[in-house]
Amino acid sequence: MIISMIVLQGLLNLVSVTATALGAHSYGSKISKRGLYIREQTTSSDFAPKGPVIDLGYARYEGYYDSSFDIFTFRGQVDSSDRKLRYASKPNRWQLPKRPNRGPGSEKVLKATANPPRCPQSPFSPIIEDYSFERDALGDEDCLFLNLFTPANKTQLPVLFWIHGGGYGQDWAANYDFSNMAKTVGNGFVTVIIQYRLGAFGFASSAEIGHFGIPNAGVHDMRFALEWVRDYIHLFGGDPTRVTIAGESAGGGGVMLMTMANNGSEGTSLFQRAIVSSPYLPTQWRYDDMQPSQAYYDLAARAGCLGPGTTQNRSVFGCLQSVDSAVLQNASAFVSMGARWGQWAFLPVTDDRLIIQRPTKQLLQARVNGVAILSGNNANEGTLFVPTDVRTEDDFLARTRLDYPLLSEENMTAIMSFYKIEEHAPSGPLYSTDGVNPPFATSLSGVASGWLQAAYNLYAEATFVCPAMFLADAFSSGGDSSTNVTKRAWRYQYSPPPAFHDDDLDVLMKPVLDKNDNDGAKESVGFRIAFQSMWGRFIINGDPTLDENTVASAKQMGDDVSAAKKSTWLPWGLRSSSLNHSTHSMLNLNMTRPEGGVADFQTVDGFTWEGGRGDRCKLWADLGPWAPA
After folding, report:
1. Among 288-302, 463-477, 562-576, whose mean pLDDT is lowest?
2. What crossing angle do the helices spanning 217-232 and 250-264 adopt, rounded to 10°?
3. 22: closest CA among 333, 445, 451, 386?
4. DSSP assignment, residue 485?
5. Would you call the peptide bond into 498 cis, given omega within 30 degrees of 0 as the criterion?
6. What is the rounded CA–CA span in Å between residue 142 and residue 118?
7. Is the pLDDT of residue 13 over 50?
8. Which of 109, 112, 348, 539 is a good FRET partner for 129, with 20 to 30 A between their CA atoms?
9. pLDDT recorded at residue 2
């Protein structure tokens, strides 16, 4: 199959067609539709008034004024030239990012008016048997750019620093725009949306890469972009001492890795707060373990770098550094498509440089950068990533062993003690559980029951939900004794059915009054305002709880969001003198019914939620050495 630009609008749609045929809902097409919506709502820069000219030393950029939001916008592509709103120079493969150089023509004012080129994309399994990218569908290795949105005529504003998701292999900055959310909270923050190296270009790893280059190149890009914000964001009206890093899925995983960077020793030097939505924690191997090394050599073989004259490690690495970009992009995509079902082949690793420990180990030690976190997940995270042929206990065991090959029989016994389906468990009708009363999501949801639902729930908890809890735990351990800074965490779950992975982003980015929502929005206006306000208030004030005016306005529309008030939604892990133990207050964001209902927010015990989720997450923390994460 030849993949052209028509198909790539894209590549995500191509992957989602295959996934849907095998029973998963369409993650890729949702990303593409969201990106198309965002690009359609943007004021055409061809006719927009000029924005300010910003001199970064290495280049001068002119944005444009978007009257729809009263903001100045700076986008990564500059006209049709090779000069772009970059935070780093063109990267060398598997080397650290570097600062842009001041070159000829740097005095010229460049119009930052169009979206940057995509980084090379590497889709996820299931496999498409035989395909390649045409030249017009290839990504651009020179892709370390950003889009920036800043309210007009304001200064010293807090900053939202967004890391996009996509399994560390897909997506780009053009699919994200939080201008609607900023408008909901009075245009109170600047937004920076970055790109970073993906697939093999960002996450190939082996002993050779560790010796001759750097593993986790994409993670280094994220951190380098934070350094750019520290040094330059004041020129765009932002305050470098009030930065909130945020991301969903792999973007949330990237946020997690930034909180862990350099063993959590960086404090608030690059950011102060973090937001994670469904933080992605796949198996995280050491950089020279068998799994990442096998993907590296599969990449080399596919790129023609394993053969006569390339048997020495240096020759393999040198060949991969110099091979034609189209060859390497196709090799990266091919290897990634051969990963486990619903997975990507090239992922972050423990590299002994920037990422020193496994997340479960370091987060349990509460060694994290930053002072506060807003940590969320969706009710049905696992449906995209598990095939629908899990029907029996044997299927469930086989799928678990395939996903976590190091598990021993003792480990499997422990897992089954928490995830085994009881004989009397209901098989229907399908409906979303309330999390408090049985049946629980361990055996039933609105999309599955029995062993298939058990597989969905296991994957969701191990990969997205428990990492959100681990992060909240790390930020609720009291604080940093060396600085006397108290850390805080808030937990929530996004639950309007079906609440699949990624469903929450549309609500955060679209207008609260969207008359042209062709996706049939389930959430009421009050729900949307409350959810956007939670994120916006956390970015601006470091506290996501809602004020009385927001709650009262929602009530006038019939929406009950009062549980999100400060007096009700307590920080996660807050010590209660009256109860003599730590509370696990979690805000459940739901609707009274899937269609045409009103918001119904509740605070619940996030530890006992869904039949003891906290205990199951403790299990996954204990299994960290064998299900490496």
Report:
1. 562-576
2. 80
3. 386
4. B
5. yes
6. 9
7. no
8. 348
9. 45
DSSP 43: P
pLDDT tens sequence across 168-226: 999 999 999 999 999 999 999 999 999 999 999 999 999 999 999 999 999 999 999 99
Tell me the CATH number for domain 2-370. Answer: 3.40.50.1820
User: CA-CA distance, 186 to 195, in Å (whole number)?
Assistant: 27
Q: Is residue 351 within 8 Å of residue 462, measured between CB atoms?
A: no
Token code pair at residue 178: 């939080």
Alpha carbon of 123 to those of 200, 355, 570: distances in Å? 11, 24, 40
b/e map 129-141, b = 16+ CB within 10 Å: eebbbeeebbbbb
Strand partners, 190: 159
- Asked if 171 and 164 count as a contact pair (C-beta separation under 8 A), the reply is yes
Computed over its alpha carbons, how large is the radius of gyration of the chain?
23
Q: Which residue has the higher pLDDT, 424 or 372?
A: 372
* Mean pLDDT value across residues 539-559: 97
- Full DSSP string of 48-84: SPEEEEEE-SS-EEEEEEETTTTEEEE-SEETTSS-B
Helix then strand then coil, % of the chain, to nearest 5: 35, 15, 45
**Buried residues in 170-193 as b, exposed as e (16+ CB within 10 A):** bbbbbbbbbbbbbbbbebbbbbbb
Across 361-395, b (16+ Cβ under 10 Å) vs e yields bbbbebbbbbbbbbbbbbbbbbbbbbbeebeeeeb
Place of tokens 């469904």: 278
Which residues make up the CATH 3.40.50.1820 domain(s) of the chain?
Answer: 2-370
Q: How far, CA to CA in Å, does 523 sit from each of 89, 257, 374, 494?
A: 42, 32, 21, 11
Point out which residues pair with 492 in neighbouring strands. 376, 587
The predicted-structure confidence for 99-119, as pLDDT tens digits, reads as follows 998 876 678 888 888 899 999
| Spatial separation of the C-alpha atoms in residues 564 and 583, rounded to whole Å | 16
Kindly state the percentage of the chain with pLDDT values over 90: 76
User: What mean pLDDT comes out for the span 418-423?
Assistant: 91
CA distance 471 to 375: 7
609-622 and 466-474 helices, crossing angle to 10° = 80
What is the CA angle 62-65-71, rounded to 5? 110
- Per-residue DSSP letters for 544-555? -PBPHHHHHHHH
Whole-model pTM over 0.90: yes
The arithmetic mean of pLDDT across residues 216-243, rounded, is 99
Phi/psi zone of residue 153: left (φ > 0), alpha (ψ -120 to 50 degrees), beta?
left
Task: Report whether 433 contacts 440 (CB < 8 A).
Answer: yes
Q: Tell me the sheet residues that pair with 245.
A: 161, 274
For 385-436, the DSSP string reads TS-TT--SHHHHHHHHHHH-TT--HHHHHHHHHHHPPPTT----S-----SS
Which 3 state secondary structure label does DSSP give 202? helix
Percent of the chain at pLDDT above 70? 83
DSSP label at 239? E
